């Protein structure tokens, strides 16, 4: 049985320790499927063997610390 | 009535050297305009009047003594209020920073502009933490579009956008993570450059998206942006992402010649989307026609993964911003603006694998763009799908489903300049975007400058700011 979107949103907010206003929660419940669909659209088969574009240059990474 | 002032940095620099005017006269005129218009337009959070007058007086003394530090000497600029500037605390338009962040610190980019003799009019309005929409209940002025105050000036570099359009500065700094330099430049009818990631050191800036952020110049003309970039660009060890790449003499490369230049027009997402306003599309294509008249060639093409790239940019931006803000969101939720906090909280809705997947999409999209730029010098698109929205009809949820044309170039890290291409029937600016290869700021500015040699849209002044009005 599918979990209601409101339960998912509530659980994610709780996990992140966020307490929101009731009207904000309603908007988030409405927006969540759109956000989830956007993220899901990135799981493309042709990306299965693609490296993420994460740059790290050890020559410069410690200069500011 | 304030004295009329030169419209561009280039003209002001010439007038300062010919003795036609002084930096003090220009600065005083601009401060008078600020007195008259800032309450209504909300361009500045903080006006640093005393500092500006001191800097202007010093510039006049130095120029009179033959100590010329370049074309930005004595030029009044606006500094976006997420960039550290000595003598003025940084609020990021947020109560979270409690009275100002780093008032005694100066970002490298601000230090470079100061050393070049610029005059800092003040800290300009930003969307809170460079995200979201204005919340009138948080004690900050609401920024309004000088072309029509019922419309948004766009964000997040709203204040610098307004200031340049309304003559409250001759140029200024914005930051761009998904379009925050180019959007306000487009909405307010002037030029704005998003630089290559790493071209300008971004230390001393309150971060939004660590892997996407950049600082860019905003001014009336592409030439003025080149004058500013010449000073702003270059490596600084305080920013691990700052690139150690030589800085060319940008202004000297703007020769107006676009003959033989190859322009790619990625049609399906960027020109054929249902949400794209017909007037905007026609104005952009007319401007492209002007470049074609100058000898450029154009090719209609396609750019794969354009829709997914918009989502990837948003996801990465939100994830990186949420990491920065989560602790404060958990303990000080109501101190954030009512539009900012839910936008930041979206970061809680994405998973760790979503972020990695977005960066994998980034890899393939970069490859697609690189392929397109292997055969073309620049890509041209509209900057925004429509002229500036009405402020009372903005809807952050609705935006999730609309196309965006700017975040793609943060995702790829490429330079992109926004230039005005006309006024809509409703009297609002319309704009196009020119994207180039990594560190090819000179190329995109050259194309923009060539267009501005044959058009005058970038010199249009909104009625509220015409000299006869102020």
Secondary structure layout plus pairing:
The complex is a heterodimer of chains A (65) and B (470).
Chain A: H1 5-15, H2 22-40
Chain B: H1 9-18, H2 23-41, E1 44-47, H3 49-64, E2 76-80, H4 108-115, E3 119-124, H5 158-166, E4 171-175, H6 182-188, E5 191-194, E6 215-219, H7 222-232, E7 262-266, H8 267-271, H9 278-293, E8 297-301, H10 306-331, H11 340-345, H12 352-375, E9 378-382, H13 396-399, H14 407-411, E10 416-423, E11 429-435, H15 441-452
Parallel strand pairs in B: 2-3, 2-4, 7-8, 7-9
Antiparallel strand pairs in B: 1-3, 4-6, 5-6, 5-10, 9-11, 10-11
Helix pairs in contact in B: 2-3, 5-6, 7-15, 10-12
- Element-level helix/strand string of chain A: HH
Task: Please report which band the strand proportion of chain A falls in: under 5%, 5-15%, 15-25%, 25-35%, 35-45% or over 45%.
Answer: under 5%
Beta strands of chain B, count: 11
Note the main sheet of chain A: none
Mean pLDDT of chain A: 88
Share of β-strand residues of chain B: 5-15%
Helix content range of chain B:
25-40%
In quaternary terms, these chains amount to heterodimer
- Name the shape of chain B in a single word: globular
Structural class from helices and strands of chain B? alpha/beta
Category from helices, strands and their pairing of chain A: mainly alpha
Mean pLDDT of chain B: 96
Runs of chain A with pLDDT <50, length 5+?
none
N-to-C CA distance of chain B: 5 Å
Tally of helical segments of chain B = 15
* Arrangement of strands in the largest sheet of chain B: 1-3-2-4-6-5-10-11-9-7-8
For the termini of chain A, the CA-CA separation is 50 Å
């Amino acid at each position: 049985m599918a979990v209601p979107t409101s339960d998912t949103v509530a659980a994610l907010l709780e996990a992140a320790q966020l307490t929101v206003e009731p009207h904000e929660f309603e908007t988030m419940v409405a927006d969540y499927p759109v956000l989830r669909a956007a993220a899901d659209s990135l799981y493309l088969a042709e990306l299965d063997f693609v490296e993420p574009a994460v740059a790290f240059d050890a020559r410069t990474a410690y200069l500011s610390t | 009535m304030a004295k009329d002032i030169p419209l561009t940095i280039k003209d002001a620099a010439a007038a300062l050297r010919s003795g036609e005017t002084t930096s003090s006269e220009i600065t005083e005129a601009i401060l008078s305009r600020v007195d008259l218009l800032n309450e209504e337009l909300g361009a500045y959070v903080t006006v640093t009047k005393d500092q500006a007058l001191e800097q202007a007086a010093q510039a006049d003394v130095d120029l009179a003594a033959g100590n010329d530090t370049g074309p930005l000497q004595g030029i009044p600029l606006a500094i976006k209020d997420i960039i550290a500037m000595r003598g003025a605390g940084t609020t990021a338009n947020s109560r979270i920073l409690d009275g100002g962040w780093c008032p005694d610190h100066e970002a490298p980019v601000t230090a470079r502009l100061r050393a070049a003799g610029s005059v800092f009019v003040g800290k300009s309005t930003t969307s809170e933490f460079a995200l979201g929409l204005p919340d009138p209940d948080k004690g900050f002025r609401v920024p309004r579009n000088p072309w029509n105050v019922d419309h948004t000036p766009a964000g997040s570099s709203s204040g610098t956008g307004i200031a340049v359009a309304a003559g409250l500065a001759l140029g200024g700094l914005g930051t761009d993570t998904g379009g925050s330099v180019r959007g306000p430049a487009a909405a307010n009818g002037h030029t704005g450059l998003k630089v290559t990631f790493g071209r300008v050191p971004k230390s001393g800036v309150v971060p939004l998206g660590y892997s996407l952020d950049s600082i860019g110049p905003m001014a009336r003309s592409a030439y003025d942006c080149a004058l500013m970039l010449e000073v702003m660009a270059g490596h600084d060890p305080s920013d691990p992402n700052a690139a150690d790449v030589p800085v060319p003499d940008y202004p000297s490369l703007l020769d107006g010649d676009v003959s033989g230049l190859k322009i790619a027009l990625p049609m399906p997402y960027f020109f054929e989307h249902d949400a794209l306003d017909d007037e905007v599309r026609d104005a952009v294509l007319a401007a492209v026609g002007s470049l074609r008249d100058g000898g450029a060639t154009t090719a209609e093409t396609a750019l794969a993964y354009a829709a997914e790239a918009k989502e990837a940019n948003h996801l990465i931006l939100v994830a990186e911003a949420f990491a920065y803000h989560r602790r404060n969101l958990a303990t000080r939720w109501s101190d954030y603006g009512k539009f900012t906090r839910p936008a930041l909280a979206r970061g809680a809705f994405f998973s760790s694998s979503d972020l990695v997947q977005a960066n994998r999409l980034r890899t393939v999209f970069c490859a697609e763009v690189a392929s397109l730029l292997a055969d073309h010098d620049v890509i041209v698109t509209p900057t925004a799908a429509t002229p500036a929205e009405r402020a009372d009809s903005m809807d952050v949820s609705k935006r999730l489903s609309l196309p965006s044309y700017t975040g793609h170039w943060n995702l790829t890290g490429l330079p992109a300049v926004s230039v005005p291409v006309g006024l809509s029937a409703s009297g609002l600016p319309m704009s196009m975007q020119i994207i180039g290869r990594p560190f090819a700021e000179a190329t995109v500015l050259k194309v923009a400058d060539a267009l501005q040699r044959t058009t005058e849209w970038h010199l249009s002044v909104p009625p509220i700011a015409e000299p006869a009005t102020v």
